[in-house]
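Hi all, long-time lurker, first post. I run a small reading group and we've been trying to get comfortable going from sequence to structure in the token notation. Rather than ask abstract questions, I figured I'd post a concrete chain and ask someone more experienced to write out its structure so we can walk through it together at our next meeting. Sequence below, copied exactly:
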Amino acid sequence: MWFEIGAMEDLKKATQAICQRLEENGVPKEKIFDCRLVVNELVANVLRHSDGTASVKGNIKESCIEIFVRSTKVFIPPTVSACSPATAEGGRGLYLVDSVSISRTVSPDGEIKVVIQY
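-- Answer (accepted) --
Happy to help. Here is the structure in token form:
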């Protein structure tokens, strides 16, 4: 199920619903935390950098969680992430996403797919 997100309050509701579903399906709490981080970081980046709205959904497939994020205006994040210096105010989100996932891909139309193994 896709959740449409136009504002931070929508993001909060979508994240809660996705995490609740993961918990109901026996996903370990630390992996649910990782999923919450991924959803928040990617959707916030879409809202911040694309001037559009975002959609997010999560699937459980075997021992993995797949998180999909897309936007009404194509937003393609950098393919390589790096941690910003400690003195920088931002620029660590994508690095954190990559550190908790086994893969992050982007389709030509801008749909981001992140896979977290548990």
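A couple of things your group might point at:
The chain has one domain: 3-117.
The domain at 3-117 is CATH 3.30.565.10 (Heat Shock Protein 90).
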